[in-house]
């Protein structure tokens, strides 16, 4: 019955959500008129300056705010599953939701002591079992349906999210590749599995997903909350989707 209840609580992350703040005046001035590596470098500087970080423990409560279901304030929307689940049902047991790293930790590698492991721009709530099935797989089209998360598909080395969040996933991945340029030096490429290396694929598929699933109110609200209340930086590809094609 719990599974059925979860399915009937299915929520749409594209549901209307109240807008909060726009980027402050001048936030992207250093990126004006640029493209390619120059734009990437400028954005890296912008979103890496004056930032704050949170601990992995603090991320539990932060996600209860950033991913709150607009229609059910006591719940969060799970990224891949699309289910609206009680904020208090978080943890590590089956039926709980936990903290999904959209850019897998082993594709760094990085830990959860500091960013990028605690960066809210790619941490999302997800069902424990679904999180385990996704694991550290690259993003790509195809595979078999995932019964625990209808609309998602997976095979031995790739994960395809449901259509409603394909663009969300792509923009989170592109953010990570720009934010963590140098140092950990995360990169998006066209190859397959790169566990143990700072690479994630598949670039052509992520570009297609970005075009297929445009930015929505839920993403914009989430971006605003992370900027205002937590990290004080933004995902530029939510504010300026056109910059994806200008860089990648």
From TrEMBL:
Compositionally biased intervals (Basic and acidic residues): 131-140, 153-162
Single GO molecular function: endonuclease activity
Matching Pfam families: Endonuclease_1
Keyword Transmembrane helix carried by entry: no
Annotated segments matching region Disordered: 131-162
Keywords: Endonuclease, Hydrolase, Nuclease, Signal
Signal peptide: 1-21
Protein's name in the database: Endonuclease I family protein
Organism: Actinoplanes subglobosus
